[in-house]
TrEMBL record:
Belongs to the EamA transporter family. Residues 16-144, 158-290 form the EamA domain. It is a multi-pass membrane protein. SUPFAM superfamilies: Multidrug resistance efflux transporter EmrE. The lineage of its organism: Bacteria, Pseudomonadati, Pseudomonadota, Gammaproteobacteria, Pseudomonadales. It is found in: Membrane. Signal peptide: none annotated. Its main location: membrane. One of its GO terms (cellular component) is membrane. The chain crosses the membrane at residues 16-38, 44-65, 77-97, 103-122, 131-148, 160-176, 188-208, 220-239, 246-270, 276-295. Pfam families: EamA. This is Drug/metabolite transporter (DMT)-like permease.
Amino acid sequence: MEQTLKPRTLDDATRGWINGLIGVVIFSGSLPATRLAVLEFDPVFLTVARAAIAGVLALALLMLLRQPRPTRAQVMPLIVVSLGVVVGFPLLTALALQYVTSAHSIVFIGMLPLATAVFGVLRGGERPRPVFWLFSVLGCLMVVGFALSQGLAASPQGDLLMLLAVVVCGLGYAEGARLSRALGGWQVICWALLVSLPVMLVLTWYLAPSTFAGISLPAWVSLGYVSLFSMLIGFVFWYRGLAQGGIAAVGQLQLLQPFFGLALAAGLLGEQVSPGMLGVTVGVILCVAGARRWAR
């Protein structure tokens, strides 16, 4: 008698890493796209417009699929997610990209895994092993060392804004991942977008330029990318991955984001990628292997 072989299924940890990687690839295009957009859009208008566009799409999804409303206890965490990833990170990075190139700012993203892991402990109750922190801190120090070697005096505003963006984004990631365990990944980002939608719509109308006649196609495409992919689709995979594989562990995949982002900055924007940038990127990527090994 022939035996029926059961199909092999992936465990939650593996699915989490796959979903997280897809999210990172999508997010890698955010800073280059933002850099293109702020050349023609005001950074504050860009922030509220992308949130408003994504919020309208989120509202449509929630209504179409008839999702139950969050509980009263989940409202405040959703506000934290909204302030962190819907408003805070997009606004701070858009402001920073007025002073620094996207290639320079992308390297700061190498600090996000450490920030996410810290908030994963504080908000998610995770407890990675001590060796995990060694690799995470090492990757973070590489990024900070690179920024110092470039001379912070050249653009202290841009670097400070990027550091603040990393902190608020790490908090938003961890809080959203914690909520995803109960609400689901795409539901969390949709509800977070909906929380800020009324204010974002009003600000979009108020801050809109008098005419859009001079806006080029690349700027419009960039606005579309950061609205649809960076604000919505990317988070569907990212929050699902963090919830499945662990906030601290899967969060280390963000160390790969500078690599993808630098390639996009060089290929699409023609920005110069220095040997120092490449060296730091390779260094932080190597840290992900050790961090993943000792995450649990």
